[in-house]
Amino acid sequence: MRAHYRRKYQLSENPKDTNHLRSVGGKVSLPLELLKMINPETKNKDDSFNLLSAFQGLGFGTVMLTGRNYFMCVRAQGTCGSTNLLCGVMLQRAFCMTAAETVAKSERSKGVRKRGVDGRVRRFEEIPHTGRSGWINLLKFWREGRFGQIHKHMERTFSALGPIYREHVATQSSVNIFLPSDIGELFRSEGLYPERMTVQPWVTHREIRHHSKGVFLKNGEEWRADRLLLNKEVMMNVAVQRFLPHLDEVARDFCRMLQARVEKEGRVVEGKQSLTIEPSSDLFRFGLEAICHVLYGERMGLFSSSPSMESQKFIWALKQMLATTNPLLYLPHRLLLRVGAPLWVQHASAWDYIFSHADVRIQRGYQRQSSSRGRRSEAGAAGDRHTGVLGQLLEKGQLSMDLIKANMTELMVGGVDTTAVPLQFALFELARNPEVQEKVRQQVIESWAQAAGDLQKALQGVPLLKGTVKETLRLYPVAITVQRRPVKDVVLQNYHVPAGTMVQVCLYPLGRSAEVFDDPERFDPERWCSIREGGQRPELGFRFMAFGLGARQCVGRRIAENQMQLLLMRVLLSFHLSVQSSEDVKTTFAFLLQPETPPRITFSRI
Ligand code: HEM
């Protein structure tokens, strides 16, 4: 059928012709029959029509024009059922493309979309989309195992439909974008109380258990009030100075533990004592140990030879909660709750464990605080014991106990996997890029020596280490999207997007786009340095989005960045990293982007 249309309308088989078409602005005279299908209001054959932008606007792309060997299914708007153009059914005004996923590797979408036929801003309904029926899409997502590969699905869909598309899966609808110009436009319209997509199963859990919500789940004034208080304890410079030594203490202990293992279990390879392991579970323990130390001023003893069962269970509960969140986002979880479906039960019991674990820590912190207050008033001196973020919040007394509990639990949940997973990727990328590793190490050695124990100074002197963290999150964004509902109408890619629409910035396609980054597959921490060798200043605006942006950006950002940098710093000072295979690590999405199989790294004593 495709061949039939190609012959009938003399659509070129040759990719070069598409370029020619672009160069003449896509102006061609189409047969009335086809024109009417594309635009039913067309009156006569000579209505000049911009073929390229028409097809792009309709989500048809250049594929059919270039004659590449892809199959695309173009369906009548609103049906998405059994009929399509190529099967001979009339098209209505707009089209939806349901087979973006079947496009193997299409031409990368190019830059900003041209203006519409008459130079107007296009209507929202004209944004290319992946199928109108959320339920049919859900079925397809399910059948094709797309939930675990949603980041790749986004990348493929941009390739096929261009730099903006709509997606409707079950009850979730969004407009998806990835280009920095659109990101800028979106974030300029986020308003005073930025809103993200709500993680509804989490909200339901809070409601049925009568727990308060923390900043992650709140919106509006309530969110802002909590958030301003939390910022003081975790985002501001004084707070960073407070927790930096505690993060470093945990990073140092992690390296000591690893050194002991290398000595004990390793063997000599090329004159160096070496050990090859999957560091993933050690990094999870590091993540939990570090966040608990910062939040509660408490060490968990996770690097001891017999770490407590409750902490191991907490890590397991976190994994369970995250893994069950993803499917629940798309299913009627209230119904699952009512019928006691195992998926919901697993999700809720994981949360229950997380809450009870946090509760124990908070109770302990509270008791410590009260007893130290008693001692202080007896001694008449200020206590200098590290009581963590909890201690600060209790001391100031601006948040109710319920809100402290809600926010501390969220910080703890947000603070383990989010750092443990990127650290795996960072170690892997440094290990498979020995030259980069050596360059970063040299900077670390110099800065460490010059700082003479001043941690902040040591970190300021290692832009390549900061670049390493950014580069890791560019290629492996642990949160694969950042979402906003703009508070006023915006124009994205020349389409009108009304206020209140859920717009997702897709970080995986952004990080790997050749339009946005030179040589995107290359692990190059230097690309983030403000001035590169040779004096060029790179274009960096709206390109690093891993922590979100603006007032609602990740509240744990300063903890996470410093925690990862300190760990990498300590590791690079003690070990050479290498890998047996430098093949790419396959990734999977289970609410967070993770390695399908944790990478194995060889640690060799320096
Ligand atoms: C590499 C590590 C991390 C990454 C990539 C990351 C990423 C993100 C992103 C993308 C958001 C949404 C931001 C937005 O909407 O603009 C977010 C929010 C949040 N993150 Fe993180 N995060 C990380 C580590 C952490 C840590 C260590 C904590 C806790 C200590 C944490 C706690 C939170 C919380 C509570 C929010 C909600 C903030 C709000 O809505 O006001 N995150 N994070």
Structural write-up:
It is an enzyme of class 1 (oxidoreductase). Heme binds at residue 554. This is steroid 11beta-monooxygenase. Belongs to the cytochrome P450 family. Its main location: mitochondrion. This protein is an alpha+beta fold and 606 residues long. It folds into 3 domains: 2-107, no CATH class; 133-211 and 482-527 and 540-545, Uridine Diphospho-n-acetylenolpyruvylglucosamine Reductase, domain 2 (2-Layer Sandwich); 212-479 and 546-605, Cytochrome P450 (Cytochrome p450, Orthogonal Bundle). The chain is built from 23 helices and 16 strands. The chain has helices spanning 2-8, 15-23, 32-38, 51-57, 63-66, 134-143, 150-161, 180-187, 200-208, 220-234, 237-265, 280-296, 309-330, 333-339, 342-379, 388-396, 401-414, 417-432, 434-451, 455-460, 463-475, 507-511, 557-574; strands at residues 27-28, 49-50, 74-76, 95-97, 164-169, 172-177, 267-269, 272-277, 481-484, 490-492, 495-497, 503-506, 575-578, 587-590, 592-595, 601-605. The chain has a 4-stranded mixed β-sheet with strand order 5-6-12-9, sandwiched between helices. A 4-stranded antiparallel β-sheet has the order 7-8-16-13. Helix 11 (237-265) packs antiparallel against helix 12 (280-296) and helix 19 (434-451) crosses helix 21. The longest helix is centred in the middle third of the chain and has 38 residues, at 342-379. 43% of the residues are buried. Mean pLDDT is 82; it is low at 1-114. It binds protoporphyrin IX containing FE. Protoporphyrin IX containing FE binds at residues 196, 215-216, 227, 291, 410-411, 414-415, 418-419, 422, 473, 478-479, 482, 546-549, 552-556, 559-560.
